[in-house]
Amino acid sequence: MQLISLRPSCNSNCSSLSRKKENVSGGRLLNHVAQKLKEEPVNFLKTMAPPLVAAIIAFSPVIYPPVSLAQTIDIQKGATLFRQACIGCHDAGGNIIQPGATLLLKDLQRNGVDAEEEIYRITYSGKGRMPGFGENCTPRGQCTFGPRLQDDDIKLLAAFVKLQADQGWANTETNGD
């Protein structure tokens, strides 16, 4: 059997390789390969370290923090609540009643309601033409005549609206209700 190996043609940092043919019979092949590896060690770590480190950094959870199942469920609940209570006026983050009061980030910032707490407060008590949805919303004329939302639901809704505003209202659909 004939074994062809690649080995540097010079002892310095040359990039050209030469082919060396050696005759090796069947049973001695493994011993011959092991001996060649001892003579010409392949520095695996030196050649593979940079791409491995790059891959580890690229896929690191520090760079892309994982979203927990609970967070995903909360986002889906918030989306469902939004479709049930808000989408009639605020489809895709807009506002068909009052165009300057959209749920887009620039309008929320301009109107001083770009924090979840402020979105919660307005959703609970209402403001201007927007009715309140809180269980204890007053005065009655400022509150919705439809079903009221519990505090936890309004918190989920406020978190969903803030998340969507931060992401530019790219996707308000979920895979289930």
Structure description:
- This is Cytochrome c-553.
- InterPro entries: Cyt_c-like_dom, Cyt_c-like_dom_sf, Cyt_C6.
- It is built from seven helices and four strands.
- The chain is mostly helical and 177 residues long.
- It has a two-stranded antiparallel ribbon.
- Mean pLDDT is 77; it is low at 1-22.
Write out key terms for the chains shown.
7 helices; disordered N terminus; Cytochrome Bc1 Complex, Chain D, domain 2; elongated; two-stranded antiparallel sheet; 2 domains; mainly alpha; single chain; 177 residues
Compact description:
Helix content is 45%, strand content 10%.
Largest sheet: 2 strands, antiparallel
The tally of beta strands, per DSSP, is 4
- Counting H and I runs of at least 4 residues, what is the number of helices? 7
Q: In what order do the strands lie side by side in the largest sheet?
A: 1-2
CATH architect. name of the largest domain:
Orthogonal Bundle
Q: Domain count, please report it.
A: 2
Low-pLDDT parts are 1-22
- Overall 3D form: elongated
- Provide the CATH superfamily of the largest domain: Cytochrome c-like domain
Domain Cytochrome c: 73-165
Function: Functions as an electron carrier between membrane-bound cytochrome b6-f and photosystem I in oxygenic photosynthesis.
GO molecular function, one term: metal ion binding
Protein name: Cytochrome c-553
